[in-house]
Design brief:
- By secondary structure, the chain is an alpha+beta fold.
- It has two domains: 75 residues, no CATH class; 137 residues, Lipopolysaccharide (LPS) transport protein A like domain (lipopolysaccharide transport protein A fold), CATH 2.60.450.10.
- It has three helices and ten strands.
- A hairpin with a 2-residue loop joins strand 8 and strand 9.
- The longest helix is centred in the N-terminal third of the chain and has 21 residues.
- It is globular and about 50 Å long.
- It starts with 30 loop residues before the first helix and ends with a strand.
- It comes from Handelsmanbacteria sp. (strain RIFCSPLOWO2_12_FULL_64_10).
- GO terms for molecular function: lipopolysaccharide transmembrane transporter activity.
């Protein structure tokens, strides 16, 4: 956050830093601002005081602790690149969640995923059944329920494909949900509808307002 009443803009963050905290300029004074406010009256009397205040202000900026800047500009408390998390059930691996970037904020129970998200699903015997991919998403810390956003594609091992703008995965119920429009592409045709619910392997599913287009 910018310090209210500051005459100088906040310095831009370093483009390549990871997890960096940006130190902001605090309130400062300058002879030019004093001239504009006083229209030049008594400038020669004010110049020494203004110069001293300017030096003190700069000194305060140099000594400003990183923790204070972190409070003013809130960033993630945790950040990881090339993040991965395994989800098990009864000791058996049921899913692996990967993301290009993982971010956790304060007391939030939901973590942010972006820079490419992938979820690999497995059946009760540990065999891979399908893969979900999306640009971004969010995952709950405790039960690992997940929301995928930004154009989601689920591809099953038999090449069946599910497409939607957003999908939810419930780890406990082992179901994928889609509230909006969805499209299923199979070898024998294409089906579209809304209100989708399916197992991760796309073998058992239900959908409302289904429109089917058969292929030869």
């Amino acid at each position: 956050m910018k310090d209210e009443g500051s005459d100088l803009p906040p310095q831009p963050p370093s483009p390549g830093g990871k997890g960096e905290r940006v130190v902001l300029w605090s309130r400062s004074f300058s002879p030019l601002s004093l001239w504009e406010r006083g229209r030049g009256r008594g400038l020669f009397c004010l110049l020494p005081s203004a110069f001293c205040l300017l030096l003190l202000s700069c000194a305060r900026v140099e000594e400003q602790p990183v923790g204070q800047a972190a409070q003013e500009v809130r960033g993630p408390d945790q950040e990881a690149w090339g993040w991965e998390s395994k989800v098990t059930k009864g000791g058996v691996r049921r899913a692996v969640i990967r993301a290009g970037r993982f971010r956790h904020y304060g007391l939030s129970r939901v973590d942010s995923l972006d820079r490419g998200v992938e979820v690999v699903f497995f059946d009760a015997s540990g065999r891979r059944t399908s893969v979900l991919r999306s640009p971004m998403g969010a995952v709950e810390q405790q039960d690992r329920r997940m929301l995928a956003l930004g154009g989601v594609v689920v591809t099953a091992e038999d090449s069946t494909t599910l497409e939607a703008d957003a999908l939810r995965w419930d780890n406990e119920r082992e179901r994928i949900y889609g509230d909006g429009a969805v499209t299923i592409r199979r070898a024998d045709g294409v089906e579209t509808g809304v209100g989708f619910e399916s197992t991760p392997d796309l073998k058992r599913w239900s959908m409302r307002n289904v429109t089917t287009k058969k292929t030869r």
